[in-house]
Amino acid sequence: MEFTFVSGNLGLDLAGTVGHRRNSRIDMLGTPADLARWTVAAGLLDTPPVVGEKDLAQAKALREAIYRLASAVRLGAALDADDCDLINQAAAHRPAGVRLRPSGGLDREGALAAALATAARAAVELLGGAQATSIRECEAAPCTRLYVDTSHRGTRRWCDMRGCGNRAKAAAFRARASR
Question: For the Zinc finger CGNR domain, which residue ranges apply (predicted)?
Answer without folding.
Answer: 135-176
